């Protein structure tokens, strides 16, 4: 409601709500006056459905009428206390944003000492603490499973966090950097520049780097193109560059899939991935716990 640029809409909504409540109250009042005297014949109102389903003029049950009155009174009181009538904020001045901030402040007051305690420990030490790991796991299940899966093994386009294959590096410091600032991975599209045949050649060369079944003749031609263009990011040996987030093409781990069709699609159209930044939303304490948990996923032995 606060986004309205004209008072008209606030008045418009208020009138509709008030008229609706008053109208329902009047309707209920008039119907409560309908009675059938003892011995009087109950008549049909004239409304009939399905040939034989008729509406009679029996009065509504008193208990039902009372509950309806209670509902209307409750609605009126609610609209006085809370927002609902246009831009009226209610006598209590409640807002969802205000409630969120209040609950957040209560949670921070309760858990901040724990966060402060773990912030004084390095990531590896936190990863070895059972309480910290339980907290980190809950954070992961709340904020990370949507992309990386409940088992942290990822999905197409979302990295597996349980192995030792890292696009930007898997040290505790780099994981914290990734969580704090996010990542934007981009693979340019080469379809227009290479043409269909050269794209297939490069795709087969990329397949050869990881020992996949490939067309040797195409791979031989693709090697030259790879050295001239692709090696700038993936390195002359195809082992990638963590400073750029360029993946290693020799380990047979593929973010989008390693079939010829998929690799051709990647080279032709490029890829564009976005990892959101969590620092402002989670804060340093939660990021520290989350980084410790993520690091432990691929370093079980070191974390124990």
Automatic annotation (TrEMBL):
Signal peptide, first to last residue: none
Ranges in coiled-coil conformation: none
Transmembrane segments: 9-29, 63-82
Claim: Electron transport is one of the keywords in the record: yes
Entry's localization field: Cell inner membrane
Gene3D superfamilies assigned to the protein according to its UniProt record, in alphabetical order: 6.10.280.130, Cytochrome c-like domain
Record's cofactor remark: Binds 2 heme C groups per subunit.
InterPro entries on file: CcoP_N, CcoP_N_sf, Cyt_c-like_dom, Cyt_c-like_dom_sf, Cyt_C_IC, Cyt_c_oxidase_cbb3_su3, Cytochrome_c_Oxidase_Subunit
Pathway: Energy metabolism; oxidative phosphorylation
Main subcellular location of this protein, as a coarse class: membrane
Cofactor: heme c
Keywords: Cell inner membrane, Cell membrane, Electron transport, Heme, Hydrogen ion transport, Ion transport, Iron, Membrane, Metal-binding, Oxidoreductase, Repeat, Respiratory chain, Transmembrane, Transmembrane helix, Transport
Annotated Pfam families: Cytochrome_CBB3 (PF13442), FixP_N (PF14715)
Domain Cytochrome c: 131-210, 217-298
Organism domain of life: Bacteria
Family: Belongs to the CcoP / FixP family.
Function: C-type cytochrome. Part of the cbb3-type cytochrome c oxidase complex.
Subunit text: Component of the cbb3-type cytochrome c oxidase.
PANTHER family for this protein: CBB3-TYPE CYTOCHROME C OXIDASE SUBUNIT FIXP
Protein name as catalogued: Cbb3-type cytochrome c oxidase subunit
């Amino acid at each position: 409601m606060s986004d309205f640029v004209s008072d008209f809409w606030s008045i418009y909504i208020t009138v509709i709500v008030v008229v609706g409540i008053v109208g329902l109250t009047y309707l209920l009042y008039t119907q409560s006056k309908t009675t059938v005297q003892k011995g009087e014949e109950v008549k049909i109102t004239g409304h009939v459905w399905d040939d034989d389903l008729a509406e009679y003029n029996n009065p509504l049950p008193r208990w039902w009428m009372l509950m309806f009155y209670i509902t209307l009174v409750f609605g009126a009181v609610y609209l006085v206390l809370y927002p609902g009538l246009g831009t009226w904020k209610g006598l209590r001045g409640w807002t969802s944003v205000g409630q969120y901030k209040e609950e957040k402040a209560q949670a921070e007051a309760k858990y901040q000492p724990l966060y402060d305690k773990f912030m004084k420990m390095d990531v590896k030490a936190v990863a070895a603490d059972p309480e910290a790991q339980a907290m980190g796991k809950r954070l992961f299940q709340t904020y990370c499973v949507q992309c990386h899966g409940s088992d942290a093994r990822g999905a197409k386009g979302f990295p597996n966090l349980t192995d030792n294959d890292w696009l930007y590096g898997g040290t505790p410091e780099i994981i914290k950097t990734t969580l704090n600032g996010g990542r934007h991975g981009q693979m340019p599209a080469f379809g227009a520049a290479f043409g269909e045949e050269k794209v297939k050649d490069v795709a087969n060369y990329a397949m050869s780097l990881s020992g996949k079944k490939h067309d040797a003749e195409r791979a031989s031609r693709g090697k030259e193109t790879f050295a001239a263009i692709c090696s700038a990011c993936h390195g002359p040996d195809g082992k990638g560059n963590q400073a750029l987030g360029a993946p290693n093409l020799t380990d047979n781990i593929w973010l989008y899939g390693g079939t010829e069709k998929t690799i051709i699609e990647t080279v032709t159209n490029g890829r564009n991935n976005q990892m959101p930044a969590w620092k402002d939303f989670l804060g340093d304490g939660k990021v520290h716990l989350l980084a410790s948990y993520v690091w432990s996923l691929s370093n079980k032995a070191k974390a124990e």
